[in-house]
Amino acid sequence: MLFRNRFLLLLALAALLAFVSLSLQFFHLIPVSTAKNGVSSKSRKRIMPDPVTEPPVTDPVYEALLYCNIPSVAERSMEGHAPHHFKLVSVHVFIRHGDRYPLYVIPKTKRPEIDCTLVANRKPYHPKLEAFVSHMSKGSGASFESPLNSLPLYPNHPLCEMGELTQTGVVQHLQNGQLLRDIYLKKHKLLPNDWSADQIYLETTGKSRTLQSGLALLYGFLPDFDWKKIYFRHQPSALFCSGSCYCPVRNQYLEKEQRRQYLLRLKNSQLEKTYGEMAKIVDVPTKQLRAANPIDSMLCHFCHNVSFPCTRNGCVDMEHFKVIKTHQIEDERERREKKLYLGYSLLGAHPILNQTIGRMQRATEGRKEELFALYSAHDVTLSPVLSALGLSEARFPRFAARLIFELWQDREKPSEHSVRILYNGVDVTFHTSFCQDHHKHSPKPMCPLENLVRFVKRDMFVALGGSSTNYYDACHREGF
C-alpha cells in the first residue's frame, strides 16, 4: 500500500513538472531548440535577436552596453567545436581593438578623466595583467616593422591620450587570448610547444591601440612568448588591402553611402533638436558640435560610468545620448536595406579575404607556415568583412570584437576541408551568403572550403552586378 501511494505521488509530481515545463516554453520563459530542415539547432548559436534575453524593441541603452563589452565572467563560445573525426588545420583571427579613450572631445567641456595606466587593484582585472606588463617591459628591443617599432607596447598615461587603449581594452583582449588558448592550443594542439616564428602571422595598423590589443591577445594566447619569434607587420590601410588599395569604384560606393547617411540625418528632426540643445549647453554652433562627433565621447562616459559633461548652461544627459544612439541604430538598419554599403564592402573586404583563402589553401597542401594568423584592426575593418560575408544581422563591431575563420580537415576523407566562421564566439557559418543553404543539402556541420573560395574568387563580383570577373576589373569598371 505504501509503495502504491509513493508511486501515485511520483506520477502526480511528474505530471506537474511536465505541465510547468510546457507552460514556460509556451510563454517563452525558457528557450526551446527547434529543428529546421532536419538539422538540430542545439549545436549552433544564432546571431538573430533572442526573444528570451533581449528587449522586445530596440533599446539604445542595451545596445550601448553590448558595444562597451565590459569584461565579466568568462563567456561561453563555439570556437573549436567539431565532430571528433575533424582535425583543426589553421585559424585566422580578426579583432577590433579594445576599449579606448575617445578620438574626439565635446567642445568646451572637460575631458573625461580616465586613467590609462595598468593597475592591479582596479577593475576590470585579469590574473595575467601584471605578468603582461612585466613581459611588455622586456620587449623594447623586439623586431617590429616600421613605424610600429616607435609605438609603446602597453598604455601608460595617468590621463589617457586621445584614442589610447584603456585597462578595460587590455583586459578584454587578455581574456580573448586566454579563451582561444584554452580551445586552440590546449584542446586542439594547433601549434606545437616549440612553435616557430613562421607558424604565426601578425599584422596591425599603425595605431598604438591596435598594436597593444594584438599584443594583449597574443600574450593571453601564448603567455611569456619568446620575443625573438614575434614580428608584427604594419598595415597602412584600415581595410588591410596591402598592395591592392586603389579601387575607384569602391570609393564611389563609399561616397554614395555617405550621402545616404547625410540625407538620413536631415530627415531626423528629433536628432537635429537634440544637437541644437547640446550645442546651446556647450555654447558652440550646432554644425561644430556635430562635426566633433559627440557620440564618441559620450560612449566613453557611458562605458566608464562617468557623468556626462555639464556647463553653466546645463548638462548633456542620458536623453541626448539615447536619441543619438537610436539614430545610429536606425542608420545601420537603413544601410543594410539600401545596399550601397554592401557594394563598398565587397570591394573593400576582397583583398583581405583573398589573402585568407590563400593561407587556407596552402595549409590544405600540408604546409605548416602561418597556422595562426592575427589581424589587429578597427571597426571600419571588421564591418565591411561582416557585410561582404552576408552577415546582415550581425551587430556593429563592439570593442574587442573577434571574427574567426577556422579551417578543418576530415580525417575520414583527408582530401576534404571545411571552414567555420565565428563572430564573438557565435557560429555564423550558415548565416553567410556563401553557405546559408548548404545545410539544406548536406548533414555536415561545416561549410566546404570550396564554397568560400568560389565566393571570393567569383561570387563577390557577381554580387556587384556587371560583367567583372576579377578585382581589378570590378574596381575600374566604367558607367557605375
UniProtKB/TrEMBL annotation:
Q: Which InterPro entries has this protein been placed in?
A: His_Pase_clade-2 (IPR000560), His_PPase_superfam (IPR029033), Histidine_acid_phosphatase (IPR050645)
| Compartments reported by the entry | Golgi apparatus membrane
Q: Which UniProt keywords apply?
A: Glycoprotein, Golgi apparatus, Hydrolase, Membrane, Signal-anchor, Transmembrane, Transmembrane helix
- Give this protein's Gene Ontology molecular function annotations: phosphatase activity
The family line of this record is: Belongs to the histidine acid phosphatase family.
What PANTHER family does the record tag this protein with? 2-PHOSPHOXYLOSE PHOSPHATASE 1, ACID PHOSPHATASE-RELATED
Membrane topology (UniProt): Single-pass type II membrane protein
Which Pfam families is this protein grouped with?
His_Phos_2
Give the quaternary structure.
Interacts with B3GAT3; the interaction increases the 2-phosphoxylose phosphatase activity of PXYLP1 during completion of linkage region formation in a B3GAT3-mediated manner.
Look up and give the organism this protein is from: Nomascus leucogenys (Northern white-cheeked gibbon)
Q: Which reaction does it catalyse?
A: 3-O-[beta-D-GlcA-(1->3)-beta-D-Gal-(1->3)-beta-D-Gal-(1->4)-beta-D-2-O-P-Xyl]-L-seryl-[protein] + H2O = 3-O-(beta-D-GlcA-(1->3)-beta-D-Gal-(1->3)-beta-D-Gal-(1->4)-beta-D-Xyl)-L-seryl-[protein] + phosphate
Q: Which SUPFAM superfamilies match?
A: Phosphoglycerate mutase-like
| Function of the protein | Responsible for the 2-O-dephosphorylation of xylose in the glycosaminoglycan-protein linkage region of proteoglycans thereby regulating the amount of mature glycosaminoglycan (GAG) chains. Sulfated glycosaminoglycans (GAGs), including heparan sulfate and chondroitin sulfate, are synthesized on the so-called common GAG-protein linkage region (GlcUAbeta1-3Galbeta1-3Galbeta1-4Xylbeta1-O-Ser) of core proteins, which is formed by the stepwise addition of monosaccharide residues by the respective specific glycosyltransferases.
Lineage, uppermost ranks: Eukaryota, Metazoa, Chordata, Craniata, Vertebrata
Report what the protein is called: 2-phosphoxylose phosphatase 1
Q: Which is a Gene Ontology cellular component entry for this protein?
A: Golgi membrane
Q: Name one GO biological process term.
A: positive regulation of heparan sulfate proteoglycan biosynthetic process
